[in-house]
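Onboarding guide, step 5: your first structure request.
Type a short instruction followed by the sequence, for example:

Predict the 3D structure of this protein.
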Amino acid sequence: MMQRGELPPPPGTPPTEIRKKKKGIKKLFVRLKRSGSTQIASDDEEAPMGFQRGGRLRATAGARLGWSRDIKSNGDIDMPFAKWDTDQVAAWLHELGLSQYVSMCRVSVKNGATLLEASPQTLYSELGVKNPLHRKKLLLALQAISKNEKDKMGELDYTWVTRWLDDIGLPQYKDSFHEARVDGRMLNFLTVDDLLSLKVTSALHHISIMRGIQCLRLNHFNPNCLRRRPTDEPYESGAEVMLWSNHRVMEWLRSVDLAEYAPNLRGSGVHGALMVLEPRFLADTLAALLCIPPTKTLLRRHLNTHFVSLVTSECQAEKREIERLPTFVPLNSLAKIKPKKRAFTRKKRGGEDEDYLCPFDTPLPSSMKLDGVINGASTTNKVPSYLTEVRSTDMVHKQRDEINQHNQTRNGNAHGGATPIDNFGAFSQEINSLTSMLSRENFKSDEGTNV
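The system replies with structure tokens like these:
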């Protein structure tokens, strides 16, 4: 059927040709609609070539990330945090990964000073921060900003922590750590109750995370300190093995002809820092985690030989000394950590010490020689002091005066103060001397009666 304004086809034209022409005209109109432009550039106008900022072409083909356009960037802000406006504080919350509280921040927070003066109860009621780990993260970040100190652990965001869990062999906890937005600063102040709230109940996994945090402290929270691939460096000292990731330990097992047992370390939490820094981690512990049967004595002896050469004989000697102690409890992958039962009494502020997962005075093996470390305590990483209350899941962080008092008592016992152990040793020596004197007198009296 002919349309209006269309000329009739010449006589003798087959109907197939008429259909082709109609399709060709229709296709032309479709192309013009798709072009999105009905204007034809003149000859004197040059078409833009390539990408130009502000032009019609976009640099990326995909959609933009979920970032609000009305939020300002904090990259070039030189003013103090207390003078930040609402938009800048909201952008800072977004950078921390706490974007779910941005809407409440715009309603309740007028400036940065309002957030600096906020208590945990205010964060709970005004901002709606009901997750205790989110409150802890926010309070730790506010404390770091108020002191105006740049720390390396603050540069490790929560996405880096999820990759770190892969390195220490615990990828099964990535979802819970990601939901809690655990970053490097929270790792440094992580508590046992925090781990329990993150659904980490295995005692071996608690120790694995603890030794991983200790390794990060010794390396000043360097994000690239762990070794994930084999290198040409010899592993003569435990300091190099301490930096091995879980994947690197599996590569070492393949190099010592134990490739069939290497996949058993996935999700076990075994890494270099756990093997070197933990005195209770022995070759038998590694054999049990690799599922090597106790009946294969030759295979276990082979693993023991290579394990001693890896962690050095001095470190192995210290492990054996601790194993001989009567209070020694071997590591068990089936052991669980249960939360402490606390009485229903109101605790005084600062009255109870914080149960840090990795205490700041955690000792090192005496066989390890590291720069900036004296008697297992780092001389560069000082214990930070918090003047305001920074809560964890159910407890209060240790205050500065408590830490100083604890250090003074320890130094007093080390420099001249007699400890109960020293007094008991001196008392036992006096008893031994009196016993020997009595035995001599009895021996002389017996000789006199026989004569």
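Each response can be followed by summary notes, for example: Residues 19 and 25 are 10 Å apart (CA to CA).
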